[in-house]
Specification:
By secondary structure, the chain is α/β, with parallel strands linked by helices. It has six helices and nine strands. The chain is globular and about 50 Å long. The chain binds iron/sulfur cluster. The site of iron/sulfur cluster has 12 residues, from loops.
């Protein structure tokens, strides 16, 4: 059976972002990303700093490990990264084995790579990265992903650090008007223990006001990154 490079397995925890905000879930975090966002809050998944923590595991080994920490008490399993879309066959295996156990699968990816298994997960978030990330969006790939998706539970999420990012989010909304768009305030802090809730809530109020005063943004949903209000940027939460 093919293997996935797993850098973290944890849970149960509470999902903090986008359409799945507030859901209890287990987490499988995979190594590797095709992006290098300037503000990535999980750079350890691609920058080499935690390479020694990578375990190459089959889907059955991943499920064994999840069982040992509380999979029984969770309907949802989030497969995160990095970018899970880097992997094909082992993702098919993991999705299939989790579904056999009546688990529901949440995946978020930036929309830079298409994979057939996108149509097999239960909740999919496509999160294209705005200009502050210093990455550039391939709009053609993003449009082809939405053309290929046959999915009733897909949403878009854009992280907003500044007004340039906000204009980018408006472009995303104009290209995909039928897909629910979530806006989330950016979190550039790398500190893992000091409280960052105050500054994040101030930024959230700034973003609320941008949307409130913008007649072109009528259906977006504006959210905090919920888990960072409670746990800051602590790993494994
Ligand atoms: Fe980090 Fe996600 Fe950007 Fe990859 S796409 S560098 S994991 S923020």
């Amino acid at each position: 059976m093919s293997k996935l490079p797993v850098i973290e397995l944890f849970g149960p925890t509470i999902q903090g972002e986008g359409s799945v905000i507030g859901l209890k879930t287990m987490f499988v975090r995979l190594y590797g990303c095709d992006y290098k966002c300037s503000w990535c809050d999980s750079a350890f998944t691609w920058d080499g700093s935690s390479k020694s923590s990578i375990q190459r595991l089959t889907s059955l080994e991943i499920i064994d490990k999840l069982n040992s920490i509380g999979l029984d008490g969770c309907t949802y399993v989030t497969i995160s990264g990095g970018n899970p879309a880097l992997y094909n066959e082992p993702m098919h295996d993991l999705i299939s084995e989790l579904h056999k156990r009546s688990k529901k699968i949440i995946v978020e990816t930036q929309g830079s790579i298409w994979k057939d298994w996108f149509n097999d997960v239960d909740i999919l978030t496509i999160s294209p990265k705005p200009p502050s990330s210093l990455m550039s969006t391939d709009w053609g790939i993003l449009q082809s992903i939405f053309a290929n998706l046959q999915h009733s539970n897909v949403s878009l999420k854009v992280v907003i650090f500044d007004e340039t990012d906000y204009l980018y989010a408006k472009k995303v909304q104009s290209l995909f008007p039928d897909i629910t768009l979530y806006l989330q305030v950016g979190n550039a802090e790398v500190t893992r223990s000091e409280s960052i809730a105050g500054q994040l809530l101030n930024k959230l109020e700034w973003l609320f006001n941008l949307v409130i005063n913008d007649p072109e943004m009528q259906t977006v949903r504006v959210l905090p990154q919920l888990h960072t209000l409670i746990w800051n940027n602590e790993r494994g939460k």
